[in-house]
Amino acid sequence: MPLLIVGGGIMGLWAAVKAERLGINALLVEAGRLGDGASGGLLGALMPHMPDRWSDKKQFQFDALVALEKEIAELEAETGLSAGYRRCGRIIPLPKPHLRSIAERHERDAGGNWVSGERQFHWHVGDSPSVAGWVDEAAGQAGFVLDTLAARVSPRAMIALLAAFLLKARHVRVAEQCSVLSLDPDGGRAVLSSGNEALFGHVVVANGPASFPLIRDALGLDAGVALGQAVKGQAALLDAAADPAMPVVFLNGLYIVPHEDGTVAIGSTSEDCFSDPCSTDEKLENLLAEAYRVVPSLARAPVLERWAGLRPKAVGRDPMVGSVADHPKLVALSGGFKVSFGIAHFLADAALQVVCGHTPVIPSGFRLQEHVSIASRTLESSD
Ligand SMILES: Cc1cc2nc3c(=O)[nH]c(=O)nc-3n(C[C@H](O)[C@H](O)[C@H](O)COP(=O)(O)OP(=O)(O)OC[C@H]3O[C@@H](n4cnc5c(N)ncnc54)[C@H](O)[C@@H]3O)c2cc1C
């Protein structure tokens, strides 16, 4: 019986690519077009967590960020396409004096924790930005950090790269304009929007924010159980003719991401409450104004696109992967929230290990069971 993958965003596409590499027969169904969700956005920052207070979650993300470079290079060689990936590093201005001593502690933490075999990544602290003519010196009154682990990718080029690989797949088929309406994981059946049923051996549920109610209902949980929520984000793309080698800039939630084609993406708002998931408004304009202050050359750049999308935030705040004991055929692959592009390839590996009957080594907070327990406790305490 084939594997069914629900959702053609960054999560579902990596799952499909990994299924192809393992020779697993699979069908990926996407409600609209591939990349129609948040994965078809603009930003593509690949940001490490802070190097202090090291944990299995930080180690997982670090290993994923290091490995992504090679995984993308392999797909690029196989397809002849580019994902617009570059380990460009990240500049973090330090606007207040107390942030300098914290950053200097992080410099030492990175020395011990940001090591992969022979490779050492750094968190340098200095008095000026590491490159001239990019970030305004005034933005970092107490200095600047240069992190050499951060990278970026073009989200749309990444989706196109994964899709192109799947075009030549022997084991995986992709069906667009096809929604899964409901799942019976124990019977191995999915009801599709076409009115047909799809039979499956396992189902990987990777349909972004819509995965939370789909998984809840498939597991037979109370309708009040919220396994996660959608968090809106707005971003913009500037025609900046920027040097693509420039580092990403990060300051208080503002991301400035120079891309390979000279465009620069600016993001992102983070909105729990919203009426229209797709609209942009003055919150984005405020973000643009802040970006112009930090990188003044951007103020002259025409805005090519304003965009908004919904991030999948799981109830436990961590990614949501794997199955629960009573319904082993349903495998979650969701909840990447703000960091999906850096870890989706590793999470997809974990999901496929579950499909193959193995227990993946992932942080316990990532497990679907953990999220179900948190959501059930939350419901009980609100009753
Ligand atoms: C403004 C903004 C900026 C961001 N910046 C970054 C960043 O810099 N770095 C980073 O790593 N992440 C970033 N993110 C987060 C990232 O985009 C998301 O975490 C990621 O795209 C989620 O991927 P996904 O595959 O889980 O879900 P999605 O991309 O939402 O994909 C799910 C897919 O499932 C389909 N679908 C839905 N329901 C069904 C159904 N019933 N049947 C079939 N298909 C269905 C949808 O059409 C969609 O294509 C950002 C997000 C936003 C909004």
From TrEMBL:
Organism lineage: Bacteria, Pseudomonadati, Pseudomonadota, Alphaproteobacteria, Hyphomicrobiales
All residue ranges annotated as the FAD dependent oxidoreductase domain in the record: 4-349
Xref: PANTHER family: GLYCINE OXIDASE (PTHR13847:SF289), SARCOSINE DEHYDROGENASE-RELATED (PTHR13847)
Keyword Disulfide bond: no
Name of the featured protein: D-amino acid oxidase
Organism: Rhizobium nepotum 39/7
SUPFAM superfamilies, alphabetized: FAD/NAD(P)-binding domain (SSF51905)
Database matches in InterPro entries: FAD-dep_OxRdtase, FAD/NAD-bd_sf
One matching Pfam family: DAO
Keywords in alphabetical order: Oxidoreductase
